[in-house]
Amino acid sequence: MDTSKRHPVTGLLAASGRTLVLASGSPRRLELLARVGLVPVVEPADVDESRRADEVPMALAERLAIDKATAVARRRPASDVVVAGDTVVARNGGELGKPRDADEARTMLAVLSGVTHEVHSGVAVAADGDVRSVVATTAVTFRQLSTADLDWYLATGEWEGKAGAYAVQGAAAAFVTEMAGLDTTVVGLPLAPTLALLADVLADVLADVLAVPGSTFAPAPRRPG
After folding, report:
1. Are the beta carbons of 194 and 201 closer than 8 angstroms?
2. Rounded distance between C-alpha atoms, residue 88 and residue 162, angstroms
3. CA 20 to CA 41: how far, in whole Å?
4. Which of 4, 71, 145, 207 is the most exposed place for a label (fewest CB within 10 A)?
5. The pLDDT of residue 115 is above 70
6. Is 151 a catalytic residue?
């Protein structure tokens, strides 16, 4: 890989000697990390993703990300840095999960037709027995979808295994008329918040390295008082 494409976090990770683990089997999350030079060990989590009573979609996304990171961290060396994510598509406060079949996918897409919905992606980073998390939200507006649109999209098969029954990085991009927020949130892993969390965790590990003047994440020198 062209080293110019590597995010500074990759250098912090290398300096720490830590192993980065992605607690997800999602090829989309893996590809997003690869964009900035991060190549994690993939170890999917197996957790109960049921929504709790009165749990709002944003809280659900964050809790599941934490649960996934925690579950994988428990079976990894304590020094490993585990990243997990969960994405919840919501409309009017209700969750649109992964459709069980094409009929349910059609129903979900019909609900999203011509309106704005929210996509919440929770991210959690676990290391040294500590877990830190954040949630990013993007508002997505679909144009009005015709029966022909729905027939065409369902035939692509992209809806399978996707929250809300669509993949914005694929053919469903043809439905989007407006997006307010990070596109990577909709794909499944808000990249900027994820990198910020990783930098925060690794900063604690490498406090002495980060104190070196000129380091990418070094604190600004104090002015004489």
Report:
1. no
2. 10
3. 6
4. 4
5. yes
6. no
